[in-house]
Every structure is written in structure tokens, then in C-alpha cells.
Amino acid sequence: MPTRPLWLTLAPFIFLALWSVGYSVAKIGLLYTDPMTLLALRFGCVILIMAVLFAILRPPLPRTRADWTHLAFVGFLIQAVYFGMNYYAFSAGIGAGTLALLMSFQPILVALLAPLWTTETITRRSWIGLALGLLGTLLVIGSRTTIEPPSMLGLTFAAIALLGITSGSLWEKRHGLSHHPVTANLIGYTAGFIGIMPALALQNDFHVDWTPAFIAALAYLVIGNSVIAVGLLLAMIRAGDVSRVSALFFMVPPLAALTAWILLGEVMPLLAWIGLGAASLGVYLATRKGV
Questions:
Q1: Is residue 242 within 8 Å of residue 210, measured between CB atoms?
Q2: Whole-Å CA distances, 147 to 48, 56, 139, 174
Q3: pLDDT tens digits for 129-173?
Q4: Which one, 12, 29, 56, 175, has the greatest CB density within 10 A?
């Protein structure tokens, strides 16, 4: 068996930290502009970075039309659908911690669909962990409804985002190949940028308040989330079972809630923290090897 590289061993911890903080940072960025303008700036910066790296490194391009299609489709699902609907959910009043909790339903959907879509199976221990994670998530959402009642429009946007990231993960696992990360990101983010163009065309105002806080938020979203975190996510999906990788999302809510409390002042009741603990135990069980 080949030795597992150190960066892949550390990838889950780096991904969790970057991804969790990204919820609050995105909400801060939306204080200064609208969702699609922020997303367009984010995608444009990533495409520029990837284009420069592509010109320097000259990595190989996909060999077949099918490979181009797979990379573009995953990019559309994760970038345009997932991030786009998340930003719309923020604008509709969904809190950063609450949205992270809603996105933690992804492992449940992946666990239900993975056996039909890929060749992997879900162990009994994983099912117990996934169920415990779901219970913890429901506890948190229920305890926060009196503090922050989520709007139906925001929940609808969140549901579409959830379907986007779930579909993208499953599609990447079944069709994804080990493309060079610069090539994959360049194609994926270009597809995502094209995917949000209809929404941009419907806007009349593209105003941005270029404050230091907005510039810092944009820089984090570009480098931390778009370049590093998404690259690690796709690499982990290719290297392991899609259900185990997706179960990492159960660890995002407690970290995102803590960050939202510090940066945004979002309150978490005691019952919510108990639920977060249950979800964390669930991800441990769901990602632990064995039957």
C-alpha cells in the first residue's frame, strides 16, 4: 500500500477550519454588496489566479470531451448552485450558524444516494453516526427558532444549495479523475461564473463598498475557501469514500456556530451546544473505519 501523503492526512482539519469560518466571512462580505456581485468578484479573482498559474505551470488539459463536461458540471453545481444559493439564503435572513447546520444534512442525503450512484456501501456504524448527527442538527435548529426564526424563502435557497453540494459530491466521486488542481479549478470556476451570469443579468445595481473589511472578506473567500478548501474537498472525495468525506460536514456546524458567535454575535442556547456535541459524535462514528 502506498504511503498516505501528509497533506492528505491534514486535509480534513484544514478544510473544516477554512470552510467553517467561511460562513461568517461570507455574511460579513454581504454587508457591503449583493450576493451575485460578491460571487462574481470571488469567481473572477479565482479565475485570474488560476489562469496565471496555468500559464506558468502548463498543466495538462482534459483529454476527452467527457472530462471537460464532468469538470464543468461539478464546477456549476458547487460554485454556482451551492455558493450562489447560500449567499441568497444569507440575504433572506438565514444566520451563518443556522445555514451551516442546514448544510450538515448533506451526509444524510449522500448516505442514502451513494449506494445507488457509486459502488460503495454504508456500514451500520456509519448509519448510527449519521442518525446521531441528524438528531443533533435538529436539536440545534429547534432551539434557535425562538431567537432566529428562519424565513421560508431562506430555507428554500438553503435546500437548493444542499442539493447542489450533494449532487456535486456524488458526481465527482463517480466521474471525477485526478486532474491537475489548477486545471480543475480553472474549468470549474469558469463554469460557475458562467452559471451565475443569468442572475447577474437581472441585476440593475452592482454597487460595492470597498471598505477594508470587505476587501479582507473577499480575500479570505478567494484564497481560503475557493482555492484551498474547495481543492481539498475535491481531493478528499477522490481519495476516499464519498459518504465518509461528506460526514465531515457534521463537524462544520459547531465550528461555524462558534465563529458566528465571535464575529457576528449570533447567540447559541445551551440546548444548541448539546446538539452540536451530538453532531460531532455522529461524525466521529460515521467516519470511523469498521463495521
A1: no
A2: 41, 51, 14, 41
A3: 778 877 887 787 777 666 666 678 988 999 999 999 888 877 876
A4: 29
Phi, psi of 58 (to 5 degrees): 50, 55
Would you say 247 and 126 are in contact if contact means Cβ atoms under 8 Å apart? yes
Instruction: Locate 33 and state its grid cell.
Output: 454588496
- Packing angle between helix 106-117 and helix 124-144, nearest 10 degrees? 150
* Identity at 230, one-letter amino acid code: V
The three-state DSSP-derived secondary structure of 10-50 is HHHHHHHHHHHHHHHHHHHHCCCCCHHHHHHHHHHHHHHHH
Domain assignments of the chain as residue spans, ordered by start: 6-287
Residue 220, C-beta contacts closer than 8 angstroms, at least 6 positions apart: 21, 22, 25
pTM, entire model: 0.82
Helix axes 106-117, 270-287, angle to 10 degrees: 20
